Every structure is written in C-alpha cells, then in structure tokens.
C-alpha cells in the first residue's frame, strides 16, 4: 500500500481516491499522542491491513520520537499485544486509556 502522511493522520487511498485504510491521532497535553481512530475498507478486512497500518504508525512514532496510547479499541489492543516489539513508542498510559469508538465513524 502507498501510505500518505498528514498531521495527525496516516492513510492510503486507491486509484479512485477511495479510502482504503486510515489511522488518526492527536497530540495530548503531555506531549504524547492518542491514536483515536482506525479504519480499514470492508473489501480489505481480514487481510492483515490493520496490523500493517499499525506497524507504519509505530515506525512513524519511532522516527519522530513520540510515544502513544490509544483510545481506539483496535489500536489499544494492538499496542498491548505488541508491547515488547514496540516498547519504545508505547506510553505508560496505554493500560489506563479510556477506550472509545467514534459514534458515526467508520469503525
């Protein structure tokens, strides 16, 4: 996938500019980020795209010296499951983050 990077957003679109996958995050007051939303287009679900996207997010965080927690349930679960491999980018707040999904979002 061809990943695009914007402030607070990593995503991929197809040749018709249809959203294929997306992760959004915002800077918290403590200087860390909250991954607050993930999305994978239904045609790609079950193919490991969400996990690959989170690897791209983790690499971005590492390259930018950021730590993350996640209020998005998928991202939170992924961070916890991959705690050892990505310990340098995972906030100590990850276990205490309030989990939520955006109402009306594309979860």
Write up what this structure looks like.
With 107 residues, the chain is α+β, with helices and mostly antiparallel strands. The chain is built from 2 helices and 5 strands, in the order ββββαβα. The chain has helices spanning 49-63, 73-81, and strands at residues 4-6, 9-13, 19-27, 33-40, 68-70. β3 (19-27) and β4 (33-40) form a beta hairpin. The chain is globular and about 40 Å long. The two termini are 20 Å apart. Residues 103-107 have low confidence and may be disordered.
Short description:
It is built from two helices and five strands; from the N terminus they run ββββαβα.
Task: List its traits.
5 strands; alpha+beta; disordered C terminus; 2 helices; single chain; five-stranded mixed sheet; 107 residues
Estimated radius of gyration: 13 Å
- State the share of residues found in helices, binned by percent: 10-25%
The helix-and-strand class reads alpha+beta
Task: List how many beta strands DSSP finds.
Answer: 5
Number of helices: 2
- Largest sheet geometry: 5 strands, mixed
Uncertain parts: 103-107
Distance between the termini: 20 Å
H/E series, N to C? EEEEHEH
Strand content: 25-35%
The average pLDDT value, as a whole number, equals 91
Give the helices and strands, then pairings:
Elements: E1 4-6, E2 9-13, E3 19-27, E4 33-40, H1 49-63, E5 68-70, H2 73-81
Parallel strand pairs: 4-5
Antiparallel strand pairs: 1-2, 2-3, 3-4
């Amino acid at each position: 996938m061809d990943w695009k990077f914007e402030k607070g957003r990593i995503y991929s679109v197809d040749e018709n500019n249809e959203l294929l996958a997306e992760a959004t995050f915002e800077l918290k007051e403590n200087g860390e980020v909250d991954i607050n939303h993930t999305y994978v287009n239904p045609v790609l679900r079950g193919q490991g795209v969400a996990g690959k996207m989170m690897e791209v997010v983790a690499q971005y965080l590492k390259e930018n010296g950021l730590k993350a927690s996640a209020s998005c349930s998928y991202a939170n679960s992924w961070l916890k499951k991959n705690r050892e491999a990505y310990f340098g980018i995972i906030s100590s707040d990850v276990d205490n983050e309030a989990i939520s999904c955006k109402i009306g979002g594309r979860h």
